[in-house]
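Our consortium's second objective concerns turning raw sequence data into structural hypotheses that experimental partners can test. To show how far this objective has progressed, the report includes one record in full. It was chosen at random from the queue rather than selected for favorable results. The single chain below, 207 residues long, was entered without modification.
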Amino acid sequence: MADSLQQLGEYAVRQHPAAIGSMMIAHKELTLHVAREEIVTVMTFLRDDPRCRFEILIDICGVDRPARTNRFDVVYHLLSPRLNQRIRVKLETDETTPVASVVGLFSVANWFEREAYDMFGILFSGHPDLRRLLTDYGFQGYPLRKDFPLTGYVEVRYDDEQKRVVYEPVELKQEFRSFDFESPWEGPQYVLPGDEKASGGSTGGKA
């Protein structure tokens, strides 16, 4: 299997040396690193070339790496039922530069690209209907970015007086606390064995 993947990767690089920057095999899986501007060319080649025949697009997902200038990886997973092989294609992009849509090659990419846009804010040029898919109308931000707060920005509840759903800023019911599980705040009034921090170094309980 490793030899066939190596041969496939080398063949792809030879066919499109300017588009495919590098290849890697890890955990018995082949990954091609592709220039952002060449994604449609490479995906067309992988689908149509008789040595590839990757005719099924399994998934498109995003990865957020905020420390990089191109903070996003866009990852495509393809399957070739005829040759019984899988391949991963990766490219990098930023928050403002769109990636060419592959909906024209794989119709299933429609919702995959919408999900990546909704969750990460990754833009896809040429998409027929690039709008949010999983979040609510008017949602602000992108939930799977690493700088998005775990609590979100707004909370939703049903107001019985107004007889409608209302959106309000998130209000935490208590402030963040740094728990020290070796010194519980509430519990027995005697010193627990080994709990020197709670007792201030004293030993023994009530006289």
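The partners drew two points from this record. Helices lie at 2-15, 39-48, 109-120, 196-199. The chain has two domains: 2-143, 178-207. Both points have been shared with the crystallography group to help prioritize constructs.
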